[in-house]
Design goal:
Blueprint (H helix, E strand, L loop, with lengths): L16 E2 L11 H9 L13 H11 L6 E4 L1 H13 L3 E5 L5 H9 L5 E5 L11 E5 L11 H10 L3 E5 L9 H4 L11 E6 L12 E4 L3 H10 L7 H11 L3 H24 L2 E3 L5 E5 L4 H6 L3 E2 L1 E2 L10 E5 L3 H18 L1
Parallel strand pairs: 1-11, 3-4, 3-5, 5-6, 6-7
Antiparallel strand pairs: 2-8, 7-8, 9-10, 10-13, 12-13
Length: 337
Amino acid sequence: MEYRHGGNAFEYGKKILDFSVNINPLGTPLAVKKAVISVLDKIEEYPDYKCTELRRKIAEREGVSPEYIVCGNGAAELIYSLMYAVRPKSAIIHTPTFCEYTYAVKASDGHKGTILMCAESNAEERAPCVEFICNPNNPTGTLTERAEIIQKLETTDRLIAVDECFNDFLDEPEKYSCVNLLDRYKRLIILKSFTKMYAIPGIRLGYLMTSDTELINEIYKARQPWSVSSAAQAAGLAVCEDTETPVKTRKYIKEERAYLEMEFERLGIEYMRSSANFIFFKAMPGLQKKLLEKNILIRDCSDFEGLDAGSYRIGIKKHNDNKKLILALEEVVRCQR
């Protein structure tokens, strides 16, 4: 399988309207940009490899102990670090979902681990070592209820890794977050990211939380030192002071998501109702290529386990950009009829 993600518009050598990424369409907050610029005179110094001040600020933001937190170069790095620390012999991954879970499990055990791919929670008897739950799920935007996650924590012995990287985009993020369950369940692991909400994929910053401090120590042994740059740490500190961006963004995303869904229905495009800042849909195979001819890039999801040709995802962008996408889709659909 070709290793690919969204956000590769640079490969095409021309100006592309990039819907393949799912970051905040409102862009990077000015305070975050200023914070990054402010540390340029410190690039001759090594960053704090344990991100001490940043972890303290995140802990205040999340209402947990700083000892529960490991920061990383985006959530993806922490997924790999977690798997290198745990070395699971087996895993449950609910498809379709973020492919890095599978890659990380395979990388951590030399491709010898058993990875049980399932579309439903129907594998309890296998008792795998770790289970990944992406909530809301990427690429579908669907949700898992907290009660279901609690049931897994109560009735199984496996580690439950809940990826909440898109939780901040939900209309009611606190309703689905499991952060306040950390003290109750040592086998609960939560992955979060500042990259998406604060539009900093070029810097990258994520964090992992668990009350299992022994596991935290093992993750530190497994991860690269200095993976979080001084610029990323400065950005994170600025983010921790920002309470307006998520509120403003949720309102904007909700309005634009409704607009796009309405237009998809008008065009007869089959889509899945999303709770996040992206929409998964089904259309004709080859649509990505046809839209590239119009300088628009969408995410071809045929490389996701359980999906096939004709599966796509778009990130929600600014309204004028969303209108351009709809016009382009309308032209392609009209030509097919």
